[in-house]
């Protein structure tokens, strides 16, 4: 199979760019390296147990869950909402 389009450098560039974006996104959401003793956002002390469980953690539990809610809410909430309204 000698598909001409697979040799097109432009296509490969696009794939590389999106992989890079995904890696950046994952890195920003899963910090590695040194964790912080105090929350990056509200400066609450991060319990040692949490820092051990999540190496590189930079947010306290409430800020982390707030962040996760904001990141997942738009699609998750709408999908669940429309499913419920279809079922009922
Ligand atoms: Zn916090």
Describe it for me?
With 88 residues, the protein is an all-alpha fold. 61% of the residues lie in helices and 0% in strands. The protein contains three helices and no strands. The protein binds zinc ion.
Explain briefly what this protein structure is.
The protein has 88 residues and is an all-alpha fold.
In terms of topology, how is this protein built?
Elements: H1 9-29, H2 48-53, H3 61-87
CA-CA gap between termini: 51 Å
SS strand fraction: under 5%
What kind of assembly state do the chains in view correspond to? single chain
Ions and ligands: zinc ion
Radius of gyration: 20 Å
DSSP strand count: 0
What letter string, H or E per element, gives the SSE order? HHH
Average pLDDT reading: 76
Count of discrete alpha- or pi-helical segments spanning 4 or more residues: 3
Low-pLDDT residue spans: none
Structural class: mainly alpha
What's the main sheet like? Answer: none
Shape: elongated
Summarize the amount of helix as a percent range: 55-70%
